[in-house]
Amino acid sequence: MAIPVIDFSKLDGDSKAMAEALAEIANGCEEWGFFQLVNHGIPVELLERVKKVCSESYKEREQGFKRSEPVHILNHLIDGNDGVSAEDLKKCDWEDAFILQDDNEWPSSPLNFKETMKEYRIELKKLAEKVMEAMDTNLGLQKGYIKKSFSNDDNDVPFFGTKVSHYPSCPHPDLVTGLRAHTDAGGVILLFQDDKVGGLQILKDGRWIDVQPVKDAIVINIGDQVEVLSNGRYKSVWHRVLSLKDGNRRSIASFYNPSYKATIAPAPELSLGAGGYPAFVFGDYMSVYVKQKFMPKEPRFQAVKAL
């Protein structure tokens, strides 16, 4: 069983090719919650630069990770020191990560990191909006509906952030997870994952399925807010990253999320029938999510309803 891989260029083809691409995207959204895009329009040369600067960035941060809490807990556990247990590790992620957004400070090193990632984020944002327009079409919504729903008004635009992660080699992958199982809080997530080192898995039909590395592909997954807008037709999916004894996994995830002031609710055209999700302000949802990220998602919707 493999995650769908979709030729995104078919959306710009003739009517038959476009219909095929839209059907494949609908299947990816409805049956999987995850799919991969190839021929997505982002230049390969840019992707190669992104790989290079992000890998170099981790090399500069590697010594810092060796002093991090999960490494500290694991070392103490292996040494048999009192005061730590395997349960402590279950609350940790074997991950080195930092966030890029338009209004925070970015690393000034390595050379060309800022320029490369700025260019990459521009391309990713355009791709996200094109993916959302395909979702609009498949859901029978007006073009641009999802993007507009993510805005509070013209002065309060959707949030776009990028998480640059590395999952270093782990001496005891049986004791700690790279990233614990969760669903994503936001809207549409675009992941440029390592094309050599695996580890990302999704939960489908009660089984953990590998998201197979595909060179230069962009992995798309559905966040909780698109589940609400679609009234449950599209579902956010549990996923995790395994820690590995061999390999150092690179992962660059970009999140196209609602503004914190945006009100999220099922689209009126889709609000009849099953689902019954409450309307809420995204910022309120996030205040619940940060406390319950690694817990079942359904109680989050009920908790935010009560706010």
From TrEMBL:
Parts forming coiled coils: none
Cofactor(s) in the UniProt record: Fe cation
An individual GO BP term: ethylene biosynthetic process
Residues annotated as signal peptide: none
Gene: MAO1B
Annotated EC: 1.14.17.4
Record key words, sorted: Ethylene biosynthesis, Fruit ripening, Iron, Metal-binding, Oxidoreductase, Vitamin C
Catalyzed reactions per annotation: 1-aminocyclopropane-1-carboxylate + L-ascorbate + O2 = ethene + L-dehydroascorbate + hydrogen cyanide + CO2 + 2 H2O
Lineage of the species this protein comes from: Eukaryota, Viridiplantae, Streptophyta, Embryophyta, Tracheophyta
Name this protein carries in UniProt: 1-aminocyclopropane-1-carboxylate oxidase
This protein's pathway: Alkene biosynthesis; ethylene biosynthesis via S-adenosyl-L-methionine; ethylene from S-adenosyl-L-methionine: step 2/2
PANTHER family found in the cross-reference section: OXOGLUTARATE/IRON-DEPENDENT DIOXYGENASE (PTHR47991)
